[in-house]
Amino acid sequence: MDALPSESLCTIWSSADAEVALNMAFMYARNSLFKGWWRPAP
Questions:
Q1: How many whole angstroms separate alpha carbon 37 and alpha carbon 15?
Q2: Phi, psi angles (nearest 5°) of residue 30
Q3: Is the pLDDT of residue 13 over 60?
Q4: Phi and psi based region of residue 36 (left: phi greater than 0; alpha: psi -120 to 50; beta: remaining)
Q5: Rounded (5°) CA angle 36-32-4
Q6: Which Gene3D superfamilies does the protein's record reference (predicted)?
Q7: How many whole angstroms separate alpha carbon 20 and alpha carbon 17?
Q8: What's the predicted TM-score (pTM) here?
């Protein structure tokens, strides 16, 4: 199995409710990348 580049992030959100995905999971994943929540501290 190939390793993902360090710039990649996979977010798994488990819910049967499509509205939850649209309003919570996508917003969370987008903000986590734009705001650098997953970047290591300098």
A1: 23
A2: -65, -50
A3: yes
A4: left
A5: 80
A6: DsrEFH-like
A7: 5
A8: 0.54
